[in-house]
């Protein structure tokens, strides 16, 4: 089970397990600090584990729908150090991590980028209600496309949703609250779905269908999987009726080691998987 180092994050290593059968390949990779399970627990619980369930469903799906080719489009992940790099690579949709910036730095970054790309803000619940309100009131009209998980608590989120001038996106809230409670939040236009944290196709299909019924856009997103996991999620998006114009899969560059390199850019070519899968499977066979 390879482990990877993450740069610019507090997470020091990434452990995972691979499933493979014929020409199909997927990964089990709970994210420490976010998943409610370790890798060992996922392997023990199997189908009761979200990451295991998604990996197994993905493996079966690849056997009947092989990863051959196709293009999906990504939203560029922006941390404090890489805004210019992300824009220069041609990303037209970017997600800025709010907690990486002071307020003044964030306002400057938005003003710099807003005429070059559509901006998504992700606070990861790092702001108080007052901080989030002060921030959005300082932003120009239409400066951002959506604000993801702006505040710390569910009650603050409900309150904020009634007055936010910008649409909202939900991520952690989806995994912690019932659909009935989620529907009480106003002005939600995006759901960020992370398969490794949520589970298999039954769960993903449910949230995808509910999103469409409620005029919400369901966006598949990474939990810092390896290149295998990134390609798997992209394949699921492309073949199972998910939007493919702004997937949250611009994360493999934060792994200092990987099974194969995914060139950073706004377009992800699934043919890379077909190129590297036979070599990777050969390496795995040599380890057995």
General description of the model:
The protein has twelve helices and 13 strands. Strand 7, helix 4 and strand 8 form a beta-alpha-beta unit. The model is unreliable at 1-10 (pLDDT under 50). The chain has helices spanning 39-45, 50-64, 83-88, 103-113, 129-138, 154-161, 172-176, 179-182, 195-198, 201-213, 227-239, 271-287, and strands at residues 3-4, 14-15, 17-21, 24-28, 71-73, 76-78, 93-97, 118-122, 146-148, 168-170, 188-193, 217-220, 267-269. The termini are close together. The longest helix has 17 residues, at 271-287. The chain is α/β, with parallel strands linked by helices. It is 39% helix and 17% strand. The strands form four sheets. It has a seven-stranded parallel beta sheet.
Please outline what is shown here.
This protein is 39% helix and 17% strand. The protein has twelve helices and 13 strands.
Radius of gyration, taken over Cα atoms and rounded to an integer in Å: 19 Å
Low-confidence region ranges: 1-10
Total beta strands: 13
Shape: globular
Descriptors for this entry?
alpha/beta; 7-stranded parallel β-sheet; two-stranded antiparallel sheet; 39% helix; globular; disordered N terminus
Topology:
Blueprint: E1 3-4, E2 14-15, E3 17-21, E4 24-28, H1 39-45, H2 50-64, E5 71-73, E6 76-78, H3 83-88, E7 93-97, H4 103-113, E8 118-122, H5 129-138, E9 146-148, H6 154-161, E10 168-170, H7 172-176, H8 179-182, E11 188-193, H9 195-198, H10 201-213, E12 217-220, H11 227-239, E13 267-269, H12 271-287
Parallel strand pairs: 6-7, 7-8, 8-9, 9-10, 10-11, 11-12
Antiparallel strand pairs: 1-2, 3-4, 5-13
